[in-house]
C-alpha cells in the first residue's frame, strides 16, 4: 500500500479527496464523525483552531468599529452632514445583512472553509480600496462591500463548533469573545495614534493587516469533517480526523467511518420544517430582541448624555478637556475625538466582557436556555433601573451593566444557534441571524438620518417625548425574549451536534 498522501495535512488537499462510498462488511465496526470527535478529544489541534478561527473576531471587530473612529475625519474631509455620516454605517450593515444569508447558503452548499476564505479576501480587498476612496459616494459603496465580506466571518465559529468535543463547546466558544474585545481595543488604540498623525486612510490600511495575516494561516485549518460527510466525501472526512488524532496524540475509533444519513444542504425550507419551525421562530425573536436591546443601550446612553438626565439636572454638559485644543477642532467646525473620547470608548468596550466568566458558568451548568433567560431578564430589569434618580456614577454603572448583559445575550444565542441546527443547514441558520441583526443594526443609523431629514418621522421621537416609555418598550422586548428563551423546545447543553435533519 502507498503511504498516506501529503494532502491529508492540507485543507485544500483534503477537500479534493473523493472516493466511491462502499458499505462496510456485515459485522465490521463502524463509527460516526461525532464518535470520532469525542474519542479523539481536546488537544493541540483545537488550541490552534481556537487561536486561528477565534482571530477572525479580531478582524471583524476592527472592520465594524472602524467607522466609529473615522467618522469625524471623513465628516470634515468631505463636509458631511449628520445624516450622511449615519448613511455610511447604514450601508455597512445593509451589505452585512444581504451577504449574510447568501454566504450562509453557499457555506452549506460548497463548504465552510471556502466561504470563510472568500469572505476574508473580499473584506480585505474592499477595505484596502476604501483607503483610496476619492469621494464620499465611493467610500459608502466600498464600505458596504466590506460589510458584505465581514458577514462571512461567522463561518469561523461554525468550523470551531463542528470540531469541538461536546463538553468543551460551552467553554471554548464563549471565550471567542476575547478576540472581539482585542480587535475593538486594537482599532481604538490605533485610531488614537494614527488618526492625528498620518490620517484615517493609513488607519484603514493598517487595520487590513490582521485579515491578510489570517488568510495566510487558513491553510493549517482543514474543512469541517462534518461538512465533508454531508457531501458524501468520507475519504476527506476520514483524512481530516486522522490528521487531528495524530496532532493531538490520540487514537482513532476502531472500524470504518460511516454516516447513515446524507441530507440535502442549504435549503431555507428546512429551517421552517415542522421539526424546527418553532425553534427557528423563537430564535428569530430572540435575535431581534437582543439586537434591539443593544441599540436601545446606545440610544439610552446618547439621550442621557445629551439631556444630562441625572435626577433632572439642568447643568450644562461637561466639556471634554481633551477636545479644547485647536488641534481637536477642524476648520469645518467638526468636533474630532480627543483623548477622553477614546478612553470612554475603551471603558465601554471592556464592559462587554465583564460578565463573561459568569456567562460561561451559566451556559455550562444551567444550560443555554435558562442562562439566556436569566441574562435577558436582567437586561429588562436594568432598562427599568435607568428610570431611577441616581448620580452620574450610578447611571454609568447601569449602562455598563447593560452593555455587559447584552454582550452575554449575544454570546449565548450565537452558541445556541450554531448547536441547534444540523450540519446540512447550520451555516444557513447562522446566516438568517445576520439578516435580523443587520436590520436592527441599521435602525439606529436610519434613526439618525430621519432625525436630521424628517424629524417628525424619526423613531427617536419616542425617546425624546417619553424617555420612560422608551425604556419600558426596550424592557418589554427583553422580557418577551426571556420567555422565548426559556420555552425553546431544544436544549443543546451536552447534546451532540446533529448531522442531518
Quick structural summary:
The protein has 23 helices and 2 strands. It has 501 residues and is mostly helical.
Q: Output the strand order for the largest sheet.
A: 1-2
Strand content: under 5%
Tell me the helix content. Answer: 55-70%
Which structural class best describes the helix and strand composition? mainly alpha
Q: How many distinct beta strands? A: 2
Reported for the largest beta sheet, the result is: 2 strands, parallel
Mean pLDDT: 79
Rg is 24 Å
Low-confidence stretches: 1-22, 312-333, 452-462
Description:
This protein is mainly α and 501 residues long. It is 68% helix and 1% strand. It contains 23 helices and 2 strands. It has helices at 11-15, 33-40, 44-54, 56-77, 82-110, 112-130, 136-150, 155-163, 166-175, 177-194, 200-207, 209-217, 225-230, 234-248, 268-271, 277-307, 339-350, 356-365, 368-385, 392-420, 426-453, 460-465, 467-486, and strands at 30-31, 256-257. α4 runs antiparallel to α7 (136-150). It is globular and about 75 Å long.
Amino acid at each position: 500500500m502507498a503511504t498516506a498522501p501529503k494532502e491529508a495535512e492540507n485543507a485544500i488537499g483534503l477537500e479534493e479527496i473523493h472516493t466511491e462510498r462502499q458499505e462496510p462488511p456485515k459485522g465490521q465496526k463502524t463509527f460516526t464523525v461525532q464518535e470520532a470527535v469525542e474519542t479523539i478529544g481536546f488537544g493541540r489541534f483545537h488550541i490552534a483552531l481556537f487561536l486561528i478561527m477565534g482571530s477572525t473576531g479580531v478582524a471583524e471587530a476592527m472592520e465594524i468599529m472602524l467607522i466609529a473612529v473615522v467618522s469625524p475625519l471623513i465628516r470634515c474631509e468631505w463636509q458631511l452632514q449628520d445624516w450622511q455620516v449615519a448613511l455610511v454605517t447604514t450601508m455597512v450593515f445593509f451589505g452585512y445583512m444581504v451577504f449574510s444569508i447568501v454566504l450562509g447558503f453557499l457555506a452549506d452548499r460548497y463548504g465552510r472553509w471556502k466561504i470563510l476564505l472568500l469572505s476574508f479576501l473580499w473584506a480585505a480587498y474592499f477595505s484596502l480600496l476604501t483607503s483610496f476612496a476619492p469621494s464620499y459616494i465611493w467610500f459608502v459603496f466600498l464600505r458596504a462591500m466590506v460589510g458584505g465580506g465581514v458577514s462571512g466571518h461567522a463561518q469561523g465559529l461554525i468550523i470551531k463548533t463542528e470540531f469541538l468535543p461536546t463538553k468543551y463547546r460551552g467553554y471554548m466558544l464563549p471565550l471567542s469573545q476575547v478576540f472581539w474585545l482585542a480587535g475593538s481595543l486594537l482599532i481604538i488604540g490605533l485610531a488614537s495614534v494614527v488618526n492625528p498623525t498620518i490620517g484615517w486612510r493609513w488607519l484603514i490600511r493598517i487595520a487590513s493587516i490582521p485579515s491578510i495575516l489570517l488568510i495566510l494561516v487558513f491553510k493549517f485549518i482543514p474543512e469541517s469533517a462534518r461538512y465533508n460527510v454531508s457531501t458524501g466525501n468520507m475519504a476527506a472526512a476520514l483524512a481530516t480526523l486522522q490528521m487531528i488524532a495524530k496532532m493531538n496524540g490520540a487514537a482513532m475509533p476502531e472500524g470504518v467511518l460511516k454516516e447513515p444519513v446524507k441530507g440535502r444542504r442549504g435549503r431555507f425550507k428546512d429551517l421552517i420544517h415542522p421539526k424546527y419551525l418553532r425553534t427557528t421562530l423563537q430564535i428569530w425573536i430572540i435575535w431581534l430582541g437582543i439586537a434591539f436591546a443593544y441599540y436601545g443601550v446606545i440610544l439610552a446612553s446618547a439621550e442621557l448624555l445629551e439631556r444630562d438626565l441625572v435626577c433632572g439636572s439642568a447643568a450644562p454638559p461637561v466639556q471634554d478637556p481633551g477636545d479644547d485644543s485647536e488641534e481637536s477642532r477642524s476648520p469645518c467646525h467638526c468636533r474630532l475625538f480627543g483623548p477622553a473620547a477614546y478612553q470612554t470608548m475603551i471603558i465601554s468596550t471592556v464592559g462587554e466582557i465583564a460578565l463573561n466568566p459568569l456567562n460561561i458558568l451559566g451556559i455550562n451548568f444551567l444550560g443555554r436556555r435558562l442562562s439566556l433567560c436569566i441574562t435577558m431578564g436582567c437586561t429588562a430589569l436594568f432598562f427599568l433601573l435607568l428610570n431611577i434618580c441616581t448620580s452620574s456614577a450610578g447611571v454609568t454603572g447601569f449602562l455598563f451593566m447593560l452593555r455587559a448583559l447584552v454582550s452575554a445575550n449575544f454570546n449565548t444565542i450565537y452558541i445556541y444557534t450554531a448547536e441547534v441546527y444540523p450540519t446540512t443547514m447550520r451555516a444557513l441558520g447562522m446566516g438568517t441571524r445576520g439578516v435580523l441583526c443587520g436590520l436592527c443594526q441599521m435602525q439606529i443609523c436610519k434613526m439618525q438620518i430621519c432625525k436630521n431629514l424628517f424629524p417628525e418621522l424619526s423613531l427617536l421621537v419616542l425617546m425624546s417625548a417619553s424617555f420612560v416609555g422608551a425604556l419600558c418598550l426596550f424592557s418589554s422586548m427583553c422580557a418577551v425574549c426571556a420567555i422565548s428563551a426559556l420555552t425553546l423546545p431544544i436544549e443543546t447543553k451536552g447534546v451532540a451536534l446533529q448531522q442531518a435533519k
